[in-house]
Design brief:
Elements lengths: L55 H12 L14 H8 L6 H17 L2 H17 L3 H8 L2 H21 L6 E8 L2 E9 L8 E10 L3 H9 L16 E7 L2 E10 L4 E14 L4 E8 L19 E11 L3 E11 L6 H26 L7 H6 L4 H10 L1 H8 L35
Antiparallel strand pairs: 1-2, 2-3, 3-9, 4-5, 5-6, 6-7, 7-8, 8-9
Helix pairs in contact: 1-6, 3-4, 4-6, 7-8, 7-10
Length: 432
């Protein structure tokens, strides 16, 4: 990873930015005492608050411990260290209820990466124990390594909410189109916090005249992407184990007539909220410590840091909105001319192609019909539930687009708001 120059300050870190991007060794600010999840109060966070900001780099490391060495077998939690077991032996015995909840959480987190369901169970357990006056037992539960790991994953989800709703200065347009009567936009800025001027932030707002499940079929079936992405040199491939909400993807694209060729190796984490009627995605560069990582092929450039956060909103049975906030750490200095050149091509060939081909996915006999109906991972069944949600139906009746449609979605990304007082309305046997 590159280093920031000495003008960087700790408060300059943007939400979701990997923590291992740090200043030069001689210019580092004094280290602050680290605070673990066990030290944090699990209470609702005010809008814009970073009180529960977690080290994303540490979260990525822990995630690879869970999934990195088990790509082609059942995902599992590594054996618990003996020191942890010894510490547990002197604790008070947990109630059967707490143990049962943690067993469910373990299965949700390690088998399918269903983070929102797991977080809801832990939040409900916290509420129950607090109401019963069992603060000591809750202290024990929240310090459990599994719960700490879960909260690190949940913080990635919260970063998506901050990323797609926050706006800054110095943005300039890259591409604008109108498809199906809806505006489509792409804009960017060279990150003012990066002294090397290699970090680019961008934001896209798209509206699709098609249901969520069919829209995502076009991007989810990655081996079919060359049918609508002419910049791809070959079909992307999924590496290792794949579930509905987690996989690793490798692809290659060519820009400016082959002058700039990009190799991507990304980790895709998904958070599906069927009651809220949306899917959130966190896409980031696969770190070189991961077992599936390999060196960049000759003649290609791989971004040092890729961070893409997508929010897909179901708007009833006939419309979908997507807001994407992205961050790219380029291997060369970013200029407005370079970003505008690449952005206009990407907007025309990728975003425009994505919107137009989503219409084709709904046609009988399309290349997406068979994988859509087979639904090997159960992905599309979850998205259909999102379409049927009451909030989705309400959005379908609204004329709001892009950022305007996000006003009622922010609460879903704040700790403690997934389960309001009448929590049975948001979680049942089908999940979140």
């Amino acid at each position: 990873m590159g280093q920031r120059c000495s003008c960087w300050r700790p408060e300059d870190r943007v939400p979701g930015e990997p923590a291992d991007l740090h200043p030069a060794e001689d210019d580092k600010p004094p280290q602050q005492e680290s605070v673990g999840i066990a030290d944090l109060q699990f209470t609702p966070v005010k809008k814009g608050s970073n009180n529960l900001s977690i080290d994303v780099d540490k979260a990525e490391k822990v995630h690879r411990e869970d999934m990195g060495n088990a790509r082609n077998v059942d995902i599992h939690i590594p054996q618990e260290p003996q020191s942890t077991k010894s510490a547990r032996s002197v604790r008070s015995v947990r109630s059967e209820t707490s143990e049962a909840v943690l067993e469910k959480v373990k299965a949700l987190v390690t088998d399918d990466f269903r983070i929102l369901e797991a977080e809801a169970l832990v939040t409900q357990l916290q509420a129950d124990l607090t109401r019963q006056g069992d603060e000591d037992e809750w202290e024990d539960v929240k310090s459990d390594p599994l719960v700490q790991r879960l909260m690190r994953y949940w913080e990635m989800y919260a970063d998506i909410g901050r990323g797609v709703t926050d706006r800054g200065d110095s943005w300039f347009p890259l591409w604008q189109g109108k498809i199906g009567g809806f505006d489509q936009t792409l804009e960017a800025q060279i990150d003012p916090n990066d002294c090397d001027q290699k970090t680019v932030r961008y934001r896209a707002a798209l509206t699709f005249p098609a249901p969520l499940s069919q829209v995502l079929a076009v991007g989810n079936e990655i081996e079919l992407q060359p049918h609508w992405q002419p910049l791809l040199l070959r079909p992307p491939e999924a590496l290792g184990k794949r579930t509905a909400e987690y996989f690793v993807s490798h692809g290659q694209m060519s820009f400016l007539g082959g002058l700039y060729k990009v190799d991507t190796l990304n980790e895709i984490k998904r958070f599906i909220h069927t009651k809220g009627g949306f899917l959130a995605e966190y896409i980031s560069t696969l770190p070189d410590t991961d077992p599936l990582h390999f060196k960049t092929p000759a003649g290609f450039r791989r971004p040092d840091t890729t961070q893409i956060m997508n929010l897909w909103l179901a708007c009833g049975p006939k419309r979908t909105m997507m807001v994407q906030a992205g961050l790219l750490k380029l291997p060369l200095t970013a200029t407005k001319w370079l970003i505008s050149s690449i952005g206009s091509v990407a907007g025309k060939n990728i975003l425009d192609g994505l919107v137009r081909n989503c219409l084709k996915a709904a046609e009988p006999g399309s290349i997406w019909e068979k994988p859509y109906l087979d639904d090997v991972h159960g992905f599309y069944a979850k998205l259909k539930k999102c379409e049927q949600a009451e909030l989705s139906q309400n959005r379908g009746k609204s004329s709001q687009e892009g950022a305007e449609a996000l006003s009622n979605i922010e609460n879903f990304f704040q700790r403690g708001t997934l389960l309001p007082p009448h929590s049975d309305q948001l979680i049942d046997e089908d999940g979140i």
